[in-house]
Amino acid sequence: MQLIQENPDLSAYLQADEVIDHEHPVVRDTAARLAKDATDSYGYARAAYEYVRDTIPHSQDSGDLRVTWRASDVLTQRTGICYAKAHALAALLRAEDIPTALCYQRLADDDGAGHVVHGLVAVRFHGAWHRQDPRGNKPGVDARFSLDGERLAWVPDPRSGEADYPELYAAPHPDVLDALRTAQDRPHLWRTLPTALGAEG
């Protein structure tokens, strides 16, 4: 699949905003700690990925009812669903001048009754984009940081209506952000998650 930049200006994928707030002190401090032990940009990107994947529990896995969406809040409260963890990783990577995009998949819902949009990031190295999934591993899920072939949590099955969205967004998709910001708690969020993006919705 060919990944498509929503914004042709690569600098858009380094910007800070209300969600990917990499100028916030908690993001800067976390990035500085991770960078201290990294020997190059690749090493830093891998360390940041593993930090978000492994030390910030996915709120569904942990049973946490809180809903986070701003990167600094994800890092402070140490909880979030896939979108929120993607925002946190994007902020940590952009804090060290690594272009990072948000991207999405459409996957079958856990109960098999429908679909849900899943959030990822893509990092820019060696002139190409590489998708990464920081949602957190669990039995049956073994995602890893990789620039040599994708190691994502899930591979969509088109026969089940699943799909990869090729667009690379500089900011969270509005449908995703709206669901996060209006959710009273995670059970409420689970009822309002987008089932598709764009015309499929």
From TrEMBL:
| Domain Transglutaminase-like residues, every copy | 29-134
Which Pfam families does this entry report, sorted A to Z?
Transglut_core (PF01841)
InterPro entries cross-referenced by the UniProt entry: Papain-like_cys_pep_sf (IPR038765), Transglutaminase-like (IPR002931)
Q: Which SUPFAM superfamilies match?
A: Cysteine proteinases
Question: This protein is called what?
Answer: Transglutaminase domain-containing protein
Originating organism: Streptomyces flavalbus
